[in-house]
Amino acid sequence: MRNKILAANWKMNLTASEAHDWLVKFNETDSDKCKIEFRLYAPNVFLSDLVKSRSLHIGAQNVHPSDFGAFTGEVSIPQLVSVGAQSVLIGHSERRTDFHETDAFLKEKVNACCNHALPFIFCCGESLEIREKGKHLSFVRAQITTAILHLSHTDLSLLTIAYEPIWAIGTGQTATNDQINEVHAFIREVLRESFGVDGANVSILYGGSVNPSNAQSIFACPDVDGGLIGGASLNASDFLELASSF
Ligand code: PGA
Q1: 241 is a catalytic site residue
Q2: Which tens digit of pLDDT belongs to each residue from 31-82?
Q3: How far apart, in Å, are the Cα atoms of 162 and each of 79, 91, 117, 206?
Q4: 165 pocket-lining for ligand 1 (C-beta < 6 Å)
Q5: Does residue 209 contact residue 170 with C-beta atoms inside 8 Å?
Q6: Which residue's CA lies nearest to atom 2 of ligand 1?
Q7: Would 236 disulfide with which of 26, 133, 138, 188, CB 3.0-4.6 Å?
Q8: pTM attached to this predicted model
Q9: Is the CB of residue 126 below 6 angstroms from any atom belonging to ligand 1?
Q10: pLDDT of 111-123, one tens digit each?
Q11: Rounded distance between C-alpha atoms, residue 62 and residue 232, angstroms
């Protein structure tokens, strides 16, 4: 049984008072909060306050693979866990592109999450250039092969995948349903080849310009188990409206 997940990725947005207002709105708004697991990936400075509210699953947007040490400005898994973070994003394309995080480095983060039994969303996805060359499937396979396929079956239970084509993130240009389902089905097959039925049951989220007007058709794709939502998650009502698209 694959979990349905709707995850907000605030990125580096909102101030403390705006974050507070978002949560108040989220809590006030009527929506079927049982059908879907709501998650919020918030900036680290807000995590402990958000966790205290106990309204939804709270995660971090990034983590360093070391437990401690001379890594100024970074945050470790024990630190995240100590404030109640329940999961973390690994390999978001903005981390890969803007901060030059390689698949090998991301594998270290994945292994660190497994060592601490911390659930994680592994993000993958191709650039427009790679897609135009028709190499998107082999590119995504390579991202997953390096960072994920060595996991044990026990560790696999910590994994959620987010497929986010880079050209669709924050651009307003959503991938078509055929493009989305092709890659999701492909990822599921890659996981099934390595892990059998456990692999096929990993939830795969789509991310990239999902909004209330396109969510219904995206979430109807058979291999899409939910969404990782950036821009449309900054407004709590828009985010919750997405839930009615399942
Ligand atoms: P977007 O961002 O919804 O603004 O495209 C998605 C993401 O980067 O996770």
Answers
A1: no
A2: 666 679 999 999 999 999 999 988 899 999 999 999 999 999 999 999 999 9
A3: 24, 10, 19, 6
A4: no
A5: yes
A6: 230
A7: 26
A8: 0.96
A9: no
A10: 999 999 999 999 9
A11: 20
